[in-house]
Amino acid sequence: MRNPLYCGKVYIKAYKDEREQYINGIHEPLVTKATFDKVQEIIDGRKRQKGKSHKKVNPNFPLRGFVMCPKCDKPLSASTSKGRNKPYSYYHCFSPCDVRIRKDDVHSWFNHFLKSISLDQNAYELLIELIKEEFVKKLIRKVELAPSIMRS
After folding, report:
1. Which letter does DSSP use for residue 50 in this model?
2. Quick one: pLDDT at residue 105?
3. What is the C-alpha separation between 121 and 124, in angstroms, rounded?
4. Do 22 and 9 touch, CB atoms closer than 8 A?
5. Cα–Cα distance measured from residue 10 to residue 24, given in angstroms and rounded to the nearest whole number
6. What is the DSSP secondary structure assignment for residue 6, as one 8-state letter?
7. What is Dmax (Cα atoms) for the chain?
C-alpha cells in the first residue's frame, strides 16, 4: 500500500549533483495519484476513513447490544467459539465482570418475556405506529447517508 509504483511513480536515487526524485513511469498505474494519496493519509492517521460503520449486524445474535449485563449494566456483545465437537454461542460482557450467558438461554428468556406482555387494542395500535415511525426514520437516515458513502 505504500509503494508509489501503484500510482505510476518510479523512485530515482540521487546521482552526482542531481537530487533523488519520483518520476512518472511508463507503466500503467493501478490506482490514481489521488487515491494513493488518500490511502497514505488514512494509513498515517492524518485522515479518518468515512463511510459505513464497521458495526456488523449478525442475524445469529439479534439481541447483541440490546441485552444488558446483569453485573455492570453495559450492553452485551456476542460471539461463537469453536468447541471440540460443535460451536458454542454466547452473549458476553467485555468489562472485567466476565459475564457469559449461553445464546439459547438469552433467546429463551427473551421469548418468555415477550409472551408475558399483553396489550389492549389501543396500546397495540400505538405500538404499531411507533414501530412504523422508527422504521421510516431509519430509512430516511440511510437515504441521507447514502451519498456520502458512495463518494468515499
Report:
1. P
2. 95
3. 5
4. yes
5. 6
6. G
7. 90
Alpha helices, DSSP H, located in 3-118: 33-44, 103-116
Q: Grid coordinates in use for 117?
A: 406482555
Q: What is the pTM of this model?
A: 0.47
Residue (of 57, 128, 125, 67) closest to 92 by Cα position:
67
**Residue 21 DSSP symbol:** E
pLDDT at 55: 59
pLDDT by 10-residue block (mean), the chain, 152 residues: 85 89 88 88 72 66 88 89 92 86 94 87 89 82 61 50
Query: Residue 95's beta-bridge partner residues?
Result: none
Estimate to the nearest angstrom the gap between the alpha carbon of 137 and the chain centroid: 20
Give pLDDT, residue 103. 95
- Phi, psi angle pair for 62, to nearest 5°: -65, -20
Closest CA to 30 of 12, 51, 50, 3: 3
Name the burial class of residue 88, with classes exposed (0-12), middle (13-18) and buried (19+) by CB atoms within 10 angstroms of its CB: middle
